[in-house]
Design a protein that fits this description.
- The protein is an all-alpha fold.
- 90% of the residues lie in helices and 0% in strands.
- It contains two helices and no strands.
- The N and C termini lie far apart (85 Å).
- The model has no long low-confidence stretch (mean pLDDT 86).
- Keywords: Coiled coil.
C-alpha cells in the first residue's frame, strides 16, 4: 500500500494541527480560520440568494411587460 503525496500532506497537516493546538496562539489561529471559513460560506450563500432573486426580478419584469402589451391590445380593440 502506497501513500500519495496528498495523503502525506493531510497526515502531516493533521499532526501539525494536533501539535499546535496546545499553544493558545495556535488555538486563536485555528478559531480565526474557522471564522474565515464560515464567513466565506455565508458570502457564497448570499451570492446564491442574490442570483435567485435577480432571476425572480427578471421574470417579474418580463411578466409585467407582457401584461402591458396585452392590455394595450385590449385597449386598442375597445377604443
Amino acid at each position: 500500500m502506497s501513500i500519495s503525496f496528498e495523503d502525506e500532506e493531510d497526515v502531516s497537516e493533521a499532526a501539525l494541527e494536533a501539535c499546535l493546538m496546545k499553544d493558545p496562539k495556535s488555538q486563536d489561529i485555528a478559531h480565526l480560520r474557522e471564522v474565515v471559513f464560515w464567513l466565506r460560506w455565508e458570502v457564497e450563500h448570499y451570492r446564491s440568494k442574490l442570483d435567485f432573486y435577480e432571476g425572480k426580478v427578471e421574470q417579474a419584469k418580463e411578466t409585467m411587460s407582457s401584461v402591458k402589451r396585452k392590455l394595450s391590445r385590449v385597449m386598442e380593440i375597445i377604443c
